[in-house]
Amino acid sequence: MPGFELFGDEERKELNDVLENGVLMRYGFDGMRNGHWKAKELEREIETRFDVKHAQLTSSGTTALNVALAVMGVGAGDEVIMPCFTFVASFESIIASGATPVLVDIDDTLTLDPKAVEAAITPRTKVVMPVHMCGSMAEMDSLKAICDKHNLYLLEDACQAFGGSYKGKMLGTIGDAGTFSFDFVKTITCGEGGAMITNNKDYAVWADQYTDHGHDHQGNDRGAETHPVLGYNFRISELHAAVGLGQIRKMDEFVRIQRRNHGIIKAALSEIPEVTFRRIPDPEGDSCGFLNFFMPTAELSNKVVDAFKAYGIDGYWNYFNNNWHYIRRWEHLKEIKSLFPLSASVKKGLETIGRQSFDQSDALISRNISCLIKLSWTEEEVNDRAARMAEAIKSIL
Ligand SMILES: *Cc1c(COP(=O)(O)O)cnc(C)c1O
Question: Which residues line ligand 1 (CB under 6 A)?
Fold first, then answer.
């Protein structure tokens, strides 16, 4: 997955354009920048490649989620339904917006279980936030039907599934808004950065203002601009956007390499009857940034981890024992270790999370192993790796 593996002359050229005139900021300084508008150009590239009307770059994937929640008008007293298997950014952005995260189980897709979502809806629910974890997608038809039925917003976190699709639509473009991360370990990197995409014109205007202190961006005198809404600073810099511009032009190639490497490893592991795979609602749309498989028991999956170590295989996670992606190790959330006082409603929501059990998700995540699919592997290296992985697994059966 990490685009940084294939950082090269394309990114250096875009960066040099910025370095030559020294305008490191995305707004203003029209006369100095010799026509270089890297952030704007990257936004147009995203819109074209994803066939979406509006892209708003941000400082990170986390702030892209913040912006999406803000433009949907989500805040104090509102509840956002999210999966218990995701990156911590999901609940961070919800809490930062003043809303309450409501955590629910995942199913064998490793993303939101539509039944668990429906059961968690209350009169305060405003958003359902599926997270397309580890390259593949949530059950978008079911989730969209639930949102339509209950009049809720659908916000897709596609930070880990850049370039994937569902029934012909790019992930991130199916809900009311979608988000991407361009942090250093994502499929396309800016070093740091993110984006919110939407077809909603109002959201686009508000996102443009909100990410830059409320600036209306009319005219060419920043100081004279008005501030129609309260905002924040979630801007990306021109340097970061330049890197992303070099990267995104290689997006199709990156996804093609991921699919090839993923296919080779999956074929090798498919030969082992005890190994099963996550359900993929639209297999053709898998971005293949990771390969996830299950062992029959948690004990066997722990043994596979040991065997991988012994066979010198790296780049995999058993998320049950990971600090960042699964509820089990989120003590800071469950024990509400906030640096500042939270509202009564958020506190109450977090106390509920602390008491909740996630048996259905535990049973899946404890048996799961998630393998990163790298871009820099040659076909020969992948073949060798696939054979060693299969051998390691067979050695413990
Ligand atoms: C990386 C990631 C984010 C946050 O992105 P940052 O750019 O690191 O803030 C959000 N959600 C998911 C699923 C991610 O993997």
Answer: 60-62, 86-87, 89, 131, 157, 159-160, 181, 183, 194
